[in-house]
Amino acid sequence: MQKLLPKLIVAAGIGLAIIAYVASNIFQSVHEPVTFDEALTIDFRPGSSIRTLSNQLQDHELLEHPDYFLIWGRLSGKATRLQAGEYLFAPGQSLSELIDDMVNGRVRQYSLTLVEGWTFREFLQALAQHEAVEHTLKDVAYEDVMTTLGYADQHPEGRFYPDTYFIHKNTRDIDLLKRAYQQMEIHLDTLWAGRDDNLPFKTSYEALIMASIVEKESAVAAERPVIAGVFINRLRKGMRLQTDPTVIYGIGEAYDGDIRFRDLRKDTPYNTYTRKGLPPTPIAMPGIGALEAVMHPADTGYLYFVATGDGSGQHVFSTNLEDHEKAVDKYQRKRNK
User: Fold this and answer.
1) What is the Cα–Cα distance from 49 to 47, expressed in whole angstroms?
2) Which of 285, 293, 119, 311 is closest to 219 using CA atoms?
3) Is 250 left (phi over 0), alpha (psi -120 to 50) or beta?
4) Beta partners for 316?
5) Which residues contact 294 (CB under 8 A, 6 or more apart)?
6) Is residue 208 within 8 Å of 188, Cβ to Cβ?
């Protein structure tokens, strides 16, 4: 027995050395950065296993030691905790980092930007064209979308907050619509609660309508409070708003990019040349800048403005019709000639 003991010790030492060597190789193989050219999208479907993932990585020649990968996954306890979803495996990322993403459900993120000033139809078009969106509303008529969302008594225009939204694969269009709707409600309610005194609006919805007009009329952020002030001054005096974007909205899909004198004379609910007060609904999605401008307009005596037409997006403001006509002559009529 005494003669056998040294041999057993040596054998145990060799065995431990082999185990340590293999363990070191396994650890290194899953923790070192993987070098490849382009990010790989991994679609890990419900019911898939770590072996499914191993096969996907092997198909792209990104797994040098499949057995090491499987052993590590099982010994770490993470093999059975992988969540279904779409994941991005980026160059320089390690296999262990990929597994951690999958265990924690950090799925691939897509972005969808709703642009300030878009109409609801443009919003729906962006949803319909987005690769990550599950299209559940494709057979729902435009007039019925709000009913489907649970807001049957509301007009959709202006009700959705323009922002960049991050979504995962197969996000339902109806869920994103609800999310944007709720964001607009939050911003509108907050700003309405802190609005200036004596604004000529009975409800926050009227302020939303005005904000949509300001959004369409302003290209320079600094001018929004001034433009809001002009329209609010006109409302207070009982003057017509006389703003082209509302007329264009009233023309609808028949608008060909050119507004004519006859369009200004044709009466519609949105023609602010023929009707006093606000149009019946917003005409676009106003951003936070337009909303803030309407709740806190600039205190001026301006009643008119005209675009300089020099590409800057800026306007010239006037307190009376005579000065306004001079500005129109200088910046529009002469330029058109």
Assistant:
1) 7
2) 311
3) alpha
4) 306
5) 199, 207, 210, 211, 214, 228, 232
6) yes
CA dist 232 and 303 (Å) reads: 9
| pLDDT tens track for 185-242 | 999 999 999 999 999 999 999 999 999 999 999 999 999 999 999 999 999 999 999 9
Give CA–CA dist 84/328, Å, rounded.
62
Please, what is the Cα angle at 204 between 203 and 208, to 5 degrees? 125
Question: SS3 helix, strand, coil % of the chain, rounded to 5?
Answer: 50, 10, 40
Question: Topology of domain 30-103, per CATH?
Answer: Dna Ligase; domain 1 (3.30.1490)
Is residue 156 within 8 Å of 145, Cβ to Cβ? yes
Q: How far is CA 305 from the centre of its chain?
A: 32
| Residues in the chain, total | 337
For residue range 79-125, list pLDDT tens digits in order: 999 999 999 999 999 999 999 999 999 999 999 999 999 999 999 99
Distances (CA, A) of 147 to 41, 209, 252: 36, 21, 22
d(CA 146, CA 142): 8
Rounded to whole angstroms, how far apart are CA atoms 187 and 190?
A: 5
Dist CA 282 CA 208 (whole Å): 7
Q: Which residues contact 282 (CB under 8 A, 6 or more apart)?
A: 155, 157, 158, 159, 208, 209, 211, 212
Q: Domain limits of the chain? A: 30-103, 110-186, 197-336
Cα 232 to chain center, whole Å?
A: 30
> Under a CB-based contact definition with an 8 Å cutoff, are residues 167 and 128 in contact?
no
Distance CA 337, CA 333 (A): 6
CA 100 to CA 235: how far, in whole Å? 59
Residue 260 reports pLDDT greater than 90: no
Q: First CA to last CA across the chain, in angstroms?
A: 114
85 contacts: CB under 8 Å, gap ≥ 6:
44, 102, 105, 107, 108, 168, 169
